[in-house]
From TrEMBL:
Protein name: ABC transporter substrate-binding protein
Keywords noted in UniProt: Signal, Transport
Organism (species): Streptacidiphilus alkalitolerans
Pfam families, A to Z: SBP_bac_1 (PF01547)
Gene3D superfamilies registered for this protein in UniProt: Periplasmic binding protein-like II
SUPFAM superfamilies noted in UniProt: Periplasmic binding protein-like II
Lineage summary: Bacteria, Bacillati, Actinomycetota, Actinomycetes, Kitasatosporales
Amino acid sequence: MHRRSAIPARYRAGVAVALAAAMALGATAGCSSAKSTANAALDTARPTTITIWTGQDQAPEKIMEGLAAQFHQLHPNVTVDMSPGAPTTDQLLPKLTAAFTSGTYPDISYNFGSWATEMQLSGRTLDITSKVADPAVKWDEFPGAARQTATPNGQVIGFPAVVDNIAVMYNKKLFAAAGLPQPTNSWTWDEFRADAKKLTDPAHNVFGTAYSVSGSEDTTWHFWPLLWQKGGSVLTKDNKKAAFNSAAGVSALTFLQQMAVTDKSVYLSQDDQKYADLFKSGLVGMLMTGPWQLADNVTAGLDYGVVYLPAFDGQNHQTISGPDLWTLYDHHDADRAYWAYTFDQWLTSAAIDPKFNLASGNLPLRSSEAASPEFAAYAAKYPGAQTLEDNLKNATLGRPTVPGYNGLSQVLGKAIAQVLQGQGDPKTALDQAAKAADTALAQGD
């Protein structure tokens, strides 16, 4: 993956207060895109510079710079001033916060999807809702979860940058050794649990599956698909209070508890990397993971397969996606707004996106790219890529992007970790976490 963070789309602590101040400043400025750019006459021939913060590591940054040069060749009057913007993707958020105050924010920035609502509430983003409604944009080619993430409070503020999802990767050699048939896309969680028990071999330090108990967003976001499949919700309908402590949440966490505490078939990873290393080393039979794991599997020479997440009812294989965004920012300049939007649309088009996302080891953004020769080559290089691409249809819900999600994720992650380590019962742990999450949501942290 090219996002410079171990966990996709995570909030980071310590920026909420500063961002709130920037949001207040933006509100004082009072600028929606439609109002702020309408008064300046657009001249698409005028020399224009747009600034882009990519948030990328060295290799994908080089790809992006090459694409920027290509865009300049197509539009010689447009200069693209491109840089990573910050030492890590995570650090883009506080830098954007400071830049909102100083007025030095970019025209486009890579954003974790979980920042979307805060960015929109800052008053600094462009509203491109009417533009993406143009059939020529083919907005519906992006996965539903990605479109949802890009549309906080009903306003589209940018284009999807990365799409992913969680499936189950399994070790074919370990399945054969346990005398188990390989799983299929129609399997159930009961089958997953039974397979995990049979795969577990304490004498050889082999576990059926694994789960992070670091208490981070990695702990939390692996829980959401099980909650959703049970019919639960993360938040109440008004997005103001936690709802994960419902009967659905208790049932989902009880299932994981039974596997970890009763069956002892789950390797409980104290960080967010060790369990993935154990999987590629052949010591974990099944792993809930995504496309970022493919390259490591191939490099390790692992004989693996990929299937959808199991379903509790045999039908609903709901998964989770952590889409990130190329967010557009408003500088009250019609020319900059026009070219920033044009670049964003071009970068994420079916013709150009493979040159960035597939080249960086990510899934393609658009459904139409699945038939491209570039994706065929990618799928041949990384077995299971086609299943992950197909699995995007099961990512129909997006994680909340509301202020306060960071605090919610932290308290729920700790609750899940405690229960899986035998230190509490699911209902009490979820009720306590929900109470703390409500405080975080009310405070916006």
